[in-house]
Amino acid sequence: MENHDVIIIGAGPAGLAAAICLQENGVKDVVVLEREWQAGGAPRHCGHYGFGWESHRRMTTGPKFAARMTNAASGIDIRTATTVLEFTMRNALRVHSSKGIYDMSAKRIILATGTREQTGAARFIGGRRLSQVMNSGTLQQHVYLKNQKPFLRPAIIGNEWVTFSALMTCKHAGIKPIGIFAEELKLDVPWFFPMGAGLRYGVPTHTNAKLVSINGQSHVESIEIERKGKRTVVECDGVILTGKFQAEVSLLAARRAMPPFSAVMPAQAAMPIFENASQVQAEARMRETDDIRILGNARGTVYTAGRCVVEARNAAEALVKELR
């Protein structure tokens, strides 16, 4: 088993910032584990501006922000294409990579796994699972990483900042959405966002418009929207589901029933049953103990990448004092 001072799960903004701060303050035995093939997190495929003001007092695009963070972490042991399978002990992990499956332990473990958008099934949206239905993260990967145009006239669903980020991604790719549809009466963004969507991009925003179903056999043909008790079919060739984030903390589920001493427990015996995502997030906050910390958006609240960096720096500085 490998033994380290600190293991960080996740090489996004929060994970990298914590690793950099720890190294700068003399904690050299730090390992960062990242399941993707490249470090940097979600900003890698967010080609628009809006990143870095809180952390660097400079606005830049997502890829440039991610590059800045990864370059600053160049001397740190960052293992990409590495998946954490489970906790085997309260301070130990089972890991899979090209090297095979092996165990690691640390005095402190930091969970910086971020957040993810809910799927169509989690939102109780009817219809077939078609390739033209995706969240904003997948859209950004298609556009910025693969230079693909998955559709031409999609519908954007949501009422959050990321909803309008998806609109900018569409603009970058030459995609013209038919509209933004929000189930809520009030948008969770500044008032000028929907105005800008209409004036600058020519895309209308509809509130109190619930997506009921997605229609089509081999590809998306239309969506069914319910407004004030009436349903309307709207033609489109894709659907972008945005927002409704939930913390990516499923690893903690298997750790819940483990005793405080270092006794190996079978994963099957340790795994509790969670009824919904909010229960998992509550569990994550409850299970933050002396030997594990949760940073960034894995805490269940979605912040900007820059704010996650600032929070991670502060947490790492406090951790340095504990390890001395």
Structural write-up:
- Residues 260-287 have low confidence and may be disordered.
- The two termini are 23 Å apart.
- Helices cover 29% and strands 28% of the residues.
- It is elongated, with a radius of gyration of 21 Å.
- Helix 1 (13-24) runs parallel beside helix 3.
- The protein is of the alpha/beta class and 324 residues long.
- The strands form 5 sheets. Strands 1, 2, 5, 6, 7, 8 and 20 form a 7-stranded mixed β-sheet that branches. Strands 11-18-12-13-14 form a 5-stranded parallel β-sheet. Strands 10-15-16-17 form a 4-stranded mixed β-sheet, with no helix packed on it.
Number of strands: 20
Q: Which ranges are low-confidence, i.e. pLDDT below 50, for 5 or more consecutive residues?
A: 260-287
The H-and-E topology, N to C, reads as EHEEHEHEEEEEEEHEHEHEEEEEEHHEH
**Which radius of gyration do the C-alpha atoms yield?**
21 Å
What is the strand content? 25-35%
**Structural class label:** alpha/beta
Shape: elongated
H/I helix tally: 9
> What characterizes the major β-sheet?
7 strands, mixed
How helical, in percent, are the residues?
A: 25-40%
Distance between the amino and carboxyl termini:
23 Å
Q: What do the pLDDT scores average to?
A: 87
